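Much of the work behind modern protein science is quiet bookkeeping, done one molecule at a time. The protein below has been through that process, and both of its lines are reproduced in full.


***
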Amino acid sequence: MLILEAHNIKKYYSDRLIIEIDDLKIYSGDKIGIIGQNGSGKTTLLNILAKEIEPDEGFVKQFCDIAYIRQFSEESICADKSF
């Protein structure tokens, strides 16, 4: 069962293209890993797919409720100055 699809996604920060995805489909039971260097757009991609932020171009369509569970909350990162 298709749970999410994204088409022609682009996200810029200033004039820098961070994310460019032509076509993405996620089906129930899929296992997905997102890897990349710091600042490469991994968190931005997850926020776009969860519809927490809008892409500059393209669209995301969700066919069910989707939750993005963060590993760390912003409060816990700010409270621990060792990061």
Notes: The mean pLDDT is 88. The longest strand covers residues 2-13. The radius of gyration is 14 Å. The first helix runs from residue 42 to 49.
